[in-house]
Design brief:
By secondary structure, this protein is of the alpha/beta class. The chain folds into two domains: about 5-170 and about 360-375, Glycogen Phosphorylase B (Rossmann fold); about 185-355, Rossmann fold (3-Layer(aba) Sandwich), CATH 3.40.50. The protein has helices spanning about 25-30, 35-40, 60-80, 95-110, 130-140, 205-220, 235-245, 260-270, 285-295, 305-310, 325-335, 340-355, 360-375; strands spanning about 10-15, 40-45, 85-90, 115-120, 145-150, 165-170, 195-200, 225-230, 255, 275, 300, 315-320. The strands form two sheets. Strands 2-1-3-4-5-6 form a six-stranded parallel beta sheet, with helices on both faces. Strands 9-8-7-10-11-12 form a six-stranded parallel beta sheet, sandwiched between helices. Helix 6 packs across helix 11 (about 325-335) and helix 11 packs across helix 12. The longest helix has 20 residues, at about 60-80.
Length: about 375
Amino acid sequence: MLVTESKKLNVLFILHLPPPIHGASIANTYIKESKIINSEHNTDYISLATNTVLSQTGKGSIRKAFKFLSILGKILKLISTKNYDLCYLSLTASGPAFYKDLIVVALLKLANKKILYHFHNKGVALAKQNKVNDALYRFAFKGTKSILLSKYLYSDIQRFVKETDVFYCPYGIPVSTVCTQKKPKEKSSINAISLLYLSNMMIEKGVYDLLHACVLLKNRNIPFVCNFVGGWTDITPEEFDKFVEENDLSMQVFAHGPKYATEKLNFFNHADVFIFPTFYHYETFGLVNLEAMQHSLPIISTHEGGIPDVISDGNTGFLVPKNTPEAIAEKIVFFAEHPEHAEAMGLKGKLRFEEYFTIDKFEQNISQVIGFAAKQSFQI
C-alpha cells in the first residue's frame, strides 16, 4: 500500500547497529535498510552501539563513555528539533546495557515522546529482583508499547507489561540470491551424514553438547561429518581442538572459524542437517535457524526462547531438551537412518520460511506495528 506524504509518520529509530555483528544488530540493519519502512514513514536513525567487538560487551571504558555521551547529544538534538510521532528503541532487557539505555528512555519520556520498544534479547525476568530494579522497570515500561519476537517470550516481561501493550513480530531474513539447492556429495562421503553448526563458538550456544553427541555417534559407528562455523567467544580454538583430539574425532569434526557470504552458503549447501542446541540465556529466536530453513535443511534445536515458533517439532525438524547430547544424537541417528524424512522435513521447512520468515514479511510487519502503535493512546 502506498502511503502519501501527508500521512507518513515521523519515526526516530534508536537501535544497535554493527559493529559488532550479532542477531540484534543484523535485524536492526534490515530495518535501517528497509525500502518498505523508509518509504512508508519519515525516518531518522541513531545507533546505540558503543562496542566494536563482542568481547567489549559489559566492559566500561573512557572511550565508550564519551561515545555514549555523543549518542545522547544526537538524540537530544533530534527530539528537540523534530516532531516525532513515535520513537522506536531497541531496549536491552537487563544488565549494565539496560541501565545505559534507561538514560535514553528518560530523555524520551522527558520530551513526552511515544515509545515503542523492540526486544531482540530477553532477561527482564532473570534480572536481580529488588526494589530499585523493580522501580526502574516499572518506570521504563509505563506508558509504552513493546514488540516481542514470539508469544513464548511474553513471560519475560509479563510482570511489568500487559499483553494488550505487546505486538508479536517474528524475524525475517533476505531470500538468498545464491543457489540454495544442495550440491551432491563427494563419493568418499556418500554414506556419511553431514552435520552443520553455525553460530558463535559459545558454551551456551550448545557447542559442547553437540561435541558430546558426536562422541556418541562415533561410539555407535554412525558415519558422519560435523562442521562448526562461527567466531570464537568463550571457547578457544585450543580448547576445541583438545576435545576433538582427546575423543578421537579429528576425522569427523572440524572447526572453520567465521565464514561469510558465499563461503557460508557453501556450508549450508553441503549439509544434510542443521544443529543449533542453544541454551543461551538471552536467546530469543535464532536467526541461523531461518537460514537453515531457507536451504531446505531439517533442524535439531531446543525449546529456548521463541525457537518453538520457528521450528515445527516433528514437521520441519526436532526440538530437544536443553543440555541433552543423548537426545541430539538420537535425532541425528534418525536422520542418518531415514534420509528421506530428513529431505521431506527440510522441504517443509523451506515452505514455512517462505510463508512466514522472509525479509519482506518482517519489514511489512514492523511497518504495520509502527502505524498501529503511533495511533494508540499512551499514558506517558
